[in-house]
Design a protein that fits this description.
The strands form three sheets. Strands 4-3-2-11-12-13 form a six-stranded mixed beta sheet. The protein has a five-stranded mixed beta sheet with strand order 1-5-6-7-10. A two-stranded antiparallel ribbon has the order 8-9. Helix 2 crosses helix 9 (about 230-245) and helix 10 (about 265-280) runs antiparallel to helix 11 (about 285-300). The longest helix is centred in the first third of the chain and has 22 residues, at about 1-25. The protein has twelve helices and 13 strands. The chain has two domains: about 1-255 and about 315-365, no CATH class; about 265-310, no CATH class. The chain has about 375 residues and is an alpha/beta fold. About 45% of the residues lie in helices and about 20% in strands. Mean pLDDT is about 85; it is low at about 220-230 and about 305-310.
């Protein structure tokens, strides 16, 4: 079978990759805007199949948003295996501290593995997540790499055996929060919206889940355009920001790009600003530390651009839970603040670090409805 697969790979790799390029597309601004607006409107109108509408307050909000774990088969191709220790420690911390866990898509890597393999190899992590569900503190949406969870049959066959029959896996989540006699929205989606492979129409999504994914698995071809095309990633981030900036009273949180963004400011720019401040006070130790961090992250984000017009602090990206050094990033909403956090190992011990934070009241005031 291995010889046959190699032969098929050799013959069909080029046409398959060509087809992948045709089936996928550069992010289309019109499609992104229409798709996100349609999803938001559906949830606002009570369409629970598209996503839950939650009501909360600044004082009581307590959420941890993690995305892009890409939990795989625990082999050399599994990006999550290096982050497992940080991830499990983070889950325990957030469970003990009464957070609601929101898994923002691509939780499992189903382009490279069958659901059966992923469930078996990540059963411990899934049971940890199920503890949140048991106490009604869990929400999960699907992304493009775990698109199969969109379908009730797959949910019933695999996920509900762990999470229970109440589990739903919609496309988005909306939280409404009152502030100064107005209603503000925290809207969440994975961020693959606008990609022809997994958005726009039911037929294309079915093709990816039912036909394309098995072919990709069998041929063992990596078709992850998000990881391989950094310009594509930035275009998509920028367009999602532009959509969020046009909304009123809304903060938008996505994943998908693996690039942390806080209040429309990306990770690299934040490090650059910190380095400037360190140089102003001539803090040699901090300068050396930040310079080393910049060199490392610039390699990891190689080719990704910073968009200088991201002036409205309306867009956030949770980053991912599969960085090459085992770090994970996420967005916390708690204690009246929104925070970009990182879990990293220090002296072989997973440690939580706040990278950036802002008060919810400040952010709401900045995205307030404009006349």
């Amino acid at each position: 079978m291995g010889i046959i697969r190699k032969f098929i790979q050799k013959v069909f790799k080029r046409p398959v990759l060509w087809a992948a390029e045709k089936l996928s597309s550069s992010p289309d601004k019109t499609k992104i805007f229409n798709s996100l607006s349609d999803l938001l409107k559906n949830i606002e109108n009570g369409n629970e199949d598209r996503g839950p509408l939650l009501k909360d307050s600044i004082e009581n909000c307590r959420y941890i948003i993690l995305s892009d774990q890409h939990k795989g088969g625990r082999d050399a191709a599994d990006d999550f295996r290096l982050s497992e220790k940080n991830y499990r420690t983070a889950l325990d911390y957030y469970y003990q501290n009464n957070y609601t866990l929101i898994s923002l898509g691509d939780a499992e890597e189903l382009w490279e593995n069958t659901p059966k393999v992923v469930i078996e190899k990540n059963y411990t992590e899934l049971q940890q997540e199920a503890l949140f569900q048991k106490h009604k503190r869990y929400h999960r949406i699907y992304g493009n790499h775990d698109l199969e969870w969109k379908y009730p049959f797959q949910q019933q066959l695999y996920l509900r055996k762990i999470f229970g029959d109440d589990l739903k896996v919609p496309e988005g989540i909306l939280i409404t929060v009152p502030h100064n006699n107005e209603t503000y929205k925290i809207f969440m989606a994975h961020g693959h919206q606008g990609d022809a492979k997994s958005d726009s129409n039911p037929f294309s999504t079915w093709v990816v889940a039912a036909i394309w994914t098995p072919i990709q698995r069998y041929l063992e071809l990596s078709l992850n355009t998000t990881a391989d095309s950094f310009e594509l990633v930035d275009k998509h981030n920028i367009m999602m920001y532009e959509w969020s900036a046009e909304q009123n009273n809304l903060l938008f949180i996505s994943g998908h790009t693996h690039k942390p963004v806080f209040a429309s400011l990306d990770h690299i720019e934040r490090l650059n600003k910190q380095l400037e401040q360190a140089k102003e006070i001539n803090n040699t130790a901090l300068i050396e530390k930040l310079t080393a961090e910049l060199v490392f992250r610039q390699k990891e984000y190689a080719g990704k651009l910073f968009h200088k017009t991201m002036a409205v602090p309306s867009y956030f990206n949770s980053g991912c839970c599969c960085f090459s050094d085992g770090d994970i990033t996420g967005i916390e909403i708690a204690d009246g603040e929104i925070r970009l956090i990182k879990w990293e190992e220090k002296d072989d011990k997973p440690t939580r670090k706040t990278l950036e934070y802002a008060s919810m009241q400040y952010l709401f005031d900045q995205v307030k409805k404009r006349d």
